[in-house]
Amino acid sequence: MFTLEQTGRGQAAALISGAGMVAGPGGRPVRPGEALEIYLAGLGAVVNPPQAGAAGPVSPLARTLKLPRITLGGASAEVLFSGLAPGLAGVYQVNVLVSPSTPSGQQVELLVEMDGVPSQPGVFVAVE
Description:
ten-stranded mixed β-sheet
């Protein structure tokens, strides 16, 4: 996952959908029922792939062949979209719906699992 510190740890490069704010410092906590946009790399093949080095297409979207499993503080989040970020080259975007069962806090751990392979621990978002 991409992080604001560009180290792969700390505050996730995750935006509150529609608000355009980081779910953490400099923004605000995401709320249960809101969608969160997570930016990352390495989710694999997509349908409607662009040419090498080209940006992710806007229409139709380039969706991953499989959906990742996303948890926030151990609570599962519903995946709304998983694919190449439209308009960005080499960047994946996963949009999830934050569950009412998600714990609140300034550093709620965000984990992504694809094909049984989990992301590195130590990536966080703020949840209200």
